[in-house]
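ok, trying the design again with the full structure, not the truncated one.
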């Protein structure tokens, strides 16, 4: 944690050298502040996994993707999709349909992989910053086995 600011600066210098130094510093500060928030401790804590590939079949549909953050404990599974929208929706029910379908598909697959544990899903809005857990009932409506919704 103590090296995050310096490491972030080096990373951005290598990835985006065209960014002004002040812009790089602001972006690094935003990310470091997000990582340090206690309410996101489980999402970025020890044992959490970043950019976790996932693939399988649910209800005859192939699921292939990458989970931004995955937390696997003996009691439960938490999958988190990070979104950097400038203005996040007022409620999780107002999240874009594509986000809900993505989380529902990943959750359905994780429920097959970990049938003995509940699988929770959440959207992390980095600009807010806010972590919105998506209710299982909302995910169930958008799961691969569900009828398509408009």
């Amino acid at each position: 944690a103590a090296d995050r600011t310096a490491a972030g600066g080096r990373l951005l210098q290598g990835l985006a050298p065209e960014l002004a130094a002040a812009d790089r510093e602001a972006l690094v500060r935003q990310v470091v502040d997000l990582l340090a928030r206690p309410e996101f401790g489980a999402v970025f804590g020890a044992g959490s996994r970043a950019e976790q590939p996932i693939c399988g079949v649910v209800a005859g549909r192939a699921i292939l993707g990458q989970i931004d953050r995955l937390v696997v404990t003996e009691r439960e599974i938490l999958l988190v999709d990070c979104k950097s929208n400038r203005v996040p929706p007022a409620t999780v029910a107002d999240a874009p349909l594509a986000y809900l379908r993505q989380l529902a598909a990943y959750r359905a697959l994780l429920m097959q992989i970990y049938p003995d544990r509940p699988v929770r899903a959440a959207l992390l809005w980095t600009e807010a910053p806010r972590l919105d857990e998506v209710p299982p009932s909302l995910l169930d409506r958008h799961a691969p086995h569900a009828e398509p919704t408009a």
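Keeping the full-length input from now on. The two ends are 44 Å apart (CA to CA).
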